[in-house]
Amino acid sequence: MSFTERELRALAAEGAAALTGSPATEVLQWAVNSGLRLAIAGSMQDTVLVHLASTALPGVDVLFLDTGYHFRETLQTRDRVAAAYSVRVRSITPRQTVAEQDADYGVALHERDPDLCCALRKTQPLDEVLGEYDAWATGLRRAESESRRDTPIVSYDERRDKIKLAPLAAWSDEQVAAFAEAHDLIANPLLSQGYPSIGCAPCTRRVAAGADARSGRWAGTAKTECGIHV
Ligand code: SF4
């Protein structure tokens, strides 16, 4: 089943009205029951959304943006999730390897132009793979940062012409931690080593206890988002 832009917009509006306050698994099931081809974006920071998706929609596709710059612990978390959860983990790679990018743009592009590096290694690969789907779900939460405080649970992704779900939008940090503990979820070990928000290794720093969780991302620059959510 394929959808026109108009149909997707109508479905997004319908979902937004119907799913306020709904449990995360209901949000995911709504998408599939609506006939949408759904993918879950999995950063492998925590695995709450992937776990919920594996129980509600066994076999669902999980997209991991394998930028070539991830921490070893993050890649190990991805591999553990792929082995243990009922999902199909797809590692999505950029068009160029890091070495090819270095040759074309110079080494350490992330230091000189992180927006371009993120565009090449995250945004473009995600945009391309999402062509295979009608909807995608992310683990975005309002509590994560000021810029995410208005995150809707269901929206229309204008840039990609997809439905975008944020089933955990209303979850607090404490809820995430409690759920992960109660269900003994696979966790990225960096979470307990001072990294409350985990991205690529060159652009992620430890943060002091109690500090803004995302302050360790692109620390020392004005950049706060990689671009896939804007
Ligand atoms: S987070 Fe850093 S290394 Fe990763 S894609 Fe963005 S700029 Fe490049």
TrEMBL record:
Pfam families: PAPS_reduct. It is an enzyme of class 1 (oxidoreductase). The keyword Iron-sulfur applies. The keyword Iron-sulfur applies. GO terms for cellular component: cytoplasm. GO terms for molecular function: 4 iron, 4 sulfur cluster binding; adenylyl-sulfate reductase (thioredoxin) activity; metal ion binding; phosphoadenylyl-sulfate reductase (thioredoxin) activity. Binds 1 [4Fe-4S] cluster per subunit. [4Fe-4S] cluster binds at C117, C118, C200, C203. Gene3D superfamilies: HUPs. The active site is at C226. InterPro entries: PAPS/APS_Rdtase, PAPS_reduct_dom, Rossmann-like_a/b/a_fold. Pathway: Sulfur metabolism; hydrogen sulfide biosynthesis; sulfite from sulfate. It catalyses: [thioredoxin]-disulfide + sulfite + AMP + 2 H(+) = adenosine 5'-phosphosulfate + [thioredoxin]-dithiol. Residues 38-205 form the Phosphoadenosine phosphosulphate reductase domain. Its cofactor is [4Fe-4S] cluster. GO terms for biological process: hydrogen sulfide biosynthetic process; sulfate assimilation, phosphoadenylyl sulfate reduction by phosphoadenylyl-sulfate reductase (thioredoxin). Catalyzes the formation of sulfite from adenosine 5'-phosphosulfate (APS) using thioredoxin as an electron donor. Belongs to the PAPS reductase family. CysH subfamily. This is Adenosine 5'-phosphosulfate reductase.
